[in-house]
Design goal:
Blueprint lengths: L1 E8 L12 E7 L14 H8 L15 H8 L3 H15 L7 E5 L5 E7 L3 H21 L4 H18 L3 H12 L4 E3 L6 E3 L6 E4 L2 E2 L4 H8 L1 H10 L7 E4 L5 H8 L4 E5 L9 E4 L2 H12 L5 E5 L4 E8 L2 E9 L2 E3 L6 H10 L3 E2 L6 E2 L5 H9 L13 E3 L11 E4 L6 H14 L3 E8 L12 E7 L4 H4 L9 H9 L10 E5 L4 H13 L5 E5 L2 E4 L2 E5 L5 H8 L6 E5 L2 H7 L6 E6 L15 H13 L1 E10 L3 H4 L8 E6 L5 H8 L3 E6 L2 E6 L2 E7 L12 H15 L5 H10 L12 E4 L4 E4 L5 H12 L6 E5 L7 H14 L2 E4 L12 H13 L5 E3 L3 H11 L5 E4 L4 H9 L5 E2 L5
Bound molecules: adenosine-5'-triphosphate (2 copies) and magnesium ion (2 copies).
Length: about 900
């Protein structure tokens, strides 16, 4: 077996609209192509031995053991690799369920599709699955040690990529609310929503969190002063910078017990509490010094540690934090009890689980000593032995929810204090013996205010009710159930995507919105080019969707991007499919036009149920997409008598129709005429039917997004695609006595489209200069010849300079063959050199004629035309 290619999909795709995270592995089974699993001796047994948990895979039989049954009866290796890759991820703690395997048109080569949670882990699992299966084929087994290593590696990849617990809670809540999120490329920034409506977060700081508030909170001494000045209870204390000042400081706070801590520390680093002697104080000073220059010395207050979380001015959760401890059972030593506690599957390393494993530090031993223990002591049953002085979850502490117990006065005080500090999200550390009584009654203090407080203790307390604090954050960032998105209009089709995308963007600009759009020639925001190049894939979509100035996104969505990595967004508001015609077949395992239609249909399907799929009613493959999408349907048609559209409108649907020379929106009993085609420059005076179709699609897409008819009309009448913007796209030149047209039509459907324009040229003779890239199939050249015979009065057949491996003259012969098949009396000649051919056509052009050039080099053709003297770009240009 050999892996030919691995692709990572990240959005709605050919295989699934809903499952975005898929690995597609192109796998050559090589010598296994002929052998289903039942014909490989010992394979079934070897597989069951290596991965007994495959028993849990139902597969097509639909019951436990279903998949293994298939292996026993005989299934192809690609299918087995799929299941193994899924199971490996499962064993590493990543729950994935989706997989598909299909044979390609190349015998023995399969596409194996597997779901992933982490990209790298997904690719790893794919490779490991191939390795595992190959080993069982070759040796009857896969070594246990290797499997264990695979799973460890997968777990590592998963852990490294996982978000912190607070961020995790936030993105989960976002997903629940249909708010799209993306991780930006730096500083763990999370973007919620799109474009102008996006919000950002980093851990639990938002784009609204003020820098002044954060800096104040991070300076514990300054915070205490501001709070004291406001009458809030804070620990009595002082700040020192030298050991020499320690003694005096201790006196100032009223002697032992005291607390020594760095003035800008966090996570309990460098803090010593309940200091009762000079020796301890000196050691504590040194420890704090490791973290900060300035050292806080303050009175030690008796009580339990509470964290009060305030979001958007309201207390949303209260947790009591209990320091790491064990409870005696009268039999085990403290050391054993710690080990036992750490066995709890809820305890992980760092922040990756609800709780963190208990680790002892220098203070722990002192603490034990004070309680009269060593690690080998056996505490009596039920007796609590504390192992850490402070209650941070990250040092093994646990949390008890106390949200329902806090006294209203404390709520009021906490909310007031957070306003004073100036934070939108803050956590107050309060030491009190009883949070259900007002602070002043219990001699309680507010120890500090935290910016970016962790959410773990609230969303997953070890005791009590979990609180959806991420929900409160979302309510603040996206009030009134806003989804934070912007309208997304996605355009696909075999031909006309760029034109329609540009036109649609132009129409939308009439609403005074900032439109971001992507096309084959570049990415634009408003009038400006952001980046040039073929930008029809997901990365370019991201540029637009991540841009905080963009109010509407119009995205040309080409097949290449969908195949390579899926769509660059989750759902669009409008998905436009213009047409499906043979082009690029045989590339990327898309071999038939129906497969191509399935691929393009992703754009129609990845639309919100309340959005619209704008479909070409005149193209049966496109019209059929109506069956597959959950969105509303809007049809456009060049045929005013279209039965499909008549029915659709009768049932209350909306459509755009070309009727009596007008582009019109038809809805219910009403026909809203937008404009006469001949007044729309893009349609070349109404003579280019395919441009009328593109304009109908754009108008309809805008209409279903509530752009007004007046705005659509204004857009259609003012849209001009200049030669400089779209070279080779229907560029028409007026040479005084005759016209010349340069177009880069490159597939039969676009020749056909071009033909429909040329046929409408009724003032004079039509001369064609035709040819095409040598890597097209023979039959494509014949088709081109046939179409040419149909369209032109006189044909000059030429070839590209670069024949792309074809022998000189062969393409020309095939075209000629097509011409004569259709009409043996056709007038034509062959001039293989493109420059000579073009010059010949321009030389011979009679008055009022049209010379149509399908060049290899658009620039050269335009230059040759311009050499002819007075040239005016017609209709389109400006
Ligand atoms: P975190 O990042 O977890 O909030 P931190 O490093 O910022 O911790 P503090 O919040 O200042 O440190 O102190 C940690 C804990 O130590 C407090 O939550 C409290 O339980 C205890 N503590 C700190 N100062 C005092 C004090 N003066 N009296 C009693 N306990 C205190
Ligand atoms: P690409 O795949 O190269 O990006 P595209 O789909 O973006 O192409 P355009 O650049 O808009 O298409 O148009 C390319 C050519 O396709 C035009 O010059 C014209 O010859 C032809 N064309 C445009 N619209 C249509 C249509 N609706 N039907 C058939 N052919 C069309
Ligand atoms: Mg604290
Ligand atoms: Mg394009």
């Amino acid at each position: 077996m050999r892996i030919l290619k691995i692709q990572t999909l990240r959005g709605p795709n050919y295989w699934s609209i809903r499952r975005h995270k898929l690995i597609v592995m192109r796998l050559d089974l090589e010598n296994l192509a002929e052998n289903p699993s039942n014909e490989i001796p010992g394979f079934y047994e070897g597989l069951v031995e290596a991965l007994p948990s495959l028993e849990g895979h139902y597969c097509s039989p639909g019951c436990r053991g279903g998949f293994l049954m298939r292996v026993k009866e005989g299934t192809m290796m690609g299918h087995i690799v799929e299941h193994v890759a899924l199971e490996l991820q499962e064993l590493a703690g990543m729950s994935v369920g989706f997989g598909r395997t299909r044979e390609t048109a190349t015998p023995g080569v399969f596409q194996v599709v597997i779901e992933y949670l982490n990209e790298e882990a997904g690719r790893y699992a794919g490779r490991a699955a191939v390795r595992l299966c190959q080993s069982i084929v070759d040796r009857g087994r896969y070594p246990k040690a290797e499997l264990e290593q695979d799973i460890l590696d997968l777990k590592d990849l998963w852990r490294e990529s996982s978000l912190g617990p607070s961020t995790e809670a936030i993105v989960k809540e976002a997903e629940k609310r249909g708010i799209p999120w993306t991780q930006l490329s730096a500083r763990f920034l999370i973007q919620l929503g799109y474009g102008v409506n996006q919000k950002r977060m980093q851990a639990t700081m938002t784009n609204k969190t003020g820098i002044l508030g954060v800096e104040l909170a991070c300076d514990k001494e300054a915070t205490k002063r501001i709070l004291a000045a406001a009458g809030a209870p804070v620990p009595r204390g002082t700040v020192i910078n030298f050991l020499d000042d320690l003694e005096e400081a201790i006196e100032y706070v009223g002697s032992y017990p005291i607390v020594i801590k760095p003035s800008d520390g966090n996570h309990g680093r460098g803090i010593t509490i309940d200091i009762r002697s000079w020796d301890e104080a000196e050691a504590a000073y040194e420890a704090a010094r490791q973290v900060s220059r300035s050292i806080i010395v303050e009175r030690y207050y008796l009580g339990r540690d509470h964290r009060v979380l305030v979001v958007d001015g309201k207390v949303v959760a209260v947790a009591e934090r209990v320091p790491a401890h064990i409870v005696g059972n009268g039999r085990s030593t403290i050391g054993d009890l710690i080990a036992e506690t750490n066995q709890d599957p809820n305890r992980g390393d760092g922040h990756d689980k609800i709780l963190t494993k208990i680790e002892l530090d220098r203070n722990s031993y002192q603490l034990l000593e004070r309680q009269g223990y060593t690690l080998n002591s056996v505490p009596p049953k039920g007796v609590i032995c504390y192992l850490r002085a402070t209650a941070n979850l990250s040092t093994g502490g646990s949390a008890i929810d106390r949200t329902d117990e806090i006294h209203p006065e404390n709520v009021w005080l906490a909310q007031r204090i957070v306003k004073i500090i100036g934070l939108d999200i803050a956590g107050l550390d309060i030491v009190t013996t009883d949070i259900s009584r007002p602070l002043r009654e219990t001699d309680a203090v507010i120890v500090e205010v935290n910016a970016a407080p962790g959410f773990r203790m609230h969303v997953a307390p070890s005791q009590g009710t979990p609180r959806n604090v991420a929900g409160s954050v979302m309510d603040m960032l996206f009030p009134n159930e806003q989804s934070g998105t912007i309208p997304i209009l996605s355009v696909t089709g075999t031909n006309g995507k760029t034109t329609t995308t540009r036109l649609l963007a132009h129409i939308y600009k009439q609403t005074d919105k900032v439109v971001g759009y992507t096309t084959t020639d570049g990415t634009y925001i408003g009038e400006y080019l952001v980046e040039s190049g073929d930008n029809t894939g997901p990365q370019s979509a991201h540029v637009i969707l991540e841009d905080p100035t963009v109010e509407v996104a119009v995205l040309e969505t080409a097949r290449g991007g969908i195949l390579r990595s899926g769509l660059g967004f989750e759902m669009a508001n409008v998905g436009v499919v213009l047409n499906v015609a043979a082009d690029h077949l045989g590339i990327g395992d898309i071999d038939t036009i129906d497969q191509l239609a399935n691929l393009k249909s992703v754009v129609a399907e990845a639309v919100f149920p309340d959005g619209y799929a704008v479909l070409n009613a005149d193209d049966h493959r496109v019209a059929a997409m109506a069956e597959k999408t959950k969105a509303n349907i809007a049809y456009f048609t060049m045929n005013p008598d279209s039965e499909l559209v008549r029915k659709h409108v009768q049932q209350g649907g909306v459509a755009a129709v070309y009727e009596n020379g007008y582009l019109s929106i038809v809805k219910g009993d009403w026909t809203h005429r937008i404009e006469r085609a001949e007044n729309i420059p893009l349609t070349m005076g109404g003579r280019a039917p395919f441009m009328i179709a593109n304009a109908l699609a754009a108008a309809l897409a805008a209409f279903v997004q509530n752009v007004t008819i007046e705005q659509i009309r204004a857009g259609l009448k003012t849209f001009r695609a200049s030669v400089s913007q779209t070279p080779g796209r229907m560029n028409l030149f007026n040479l005084g006595k005759y016209h010349a047209l340069v177009d880069y039509a490159h597939n039969p459907a676009s020749y056909e489209a071009l033909g429909s324009f040329v046929r409408n040229w009724t003032t004079g003779e039509r001369i064609g200069v035709v040819g095409g890239p040598g890597d097209r199939r023979d039959e494509d050249f014949v088709t081109l010849g046939k179409l040419s015979a149909d369209i032109f009065d006189y044909i000059i057949v030429k070839e590209d300079d670069d024949t792309r491996g074809r022998s000189r003259g062969s393409a020309s012969d095939l075209i000629t063959k097509g011409i004569t098949e259709v009409n043996p009396d056709s007038r034509y000649e062959s001039i293989l050199d493109e420059t000579a051919a073009i010059n010949q056509a321009l030389d011979m052009a009679p008055d009022n004629s049209l010379v149509v050039i399908l060049p290899e080099s658009v620039n050269r053709a335009i230059k040759l035309i311009k050499l002819r003297g007075l040239v005016k770009e017609e209709v389109q240009p400006q």
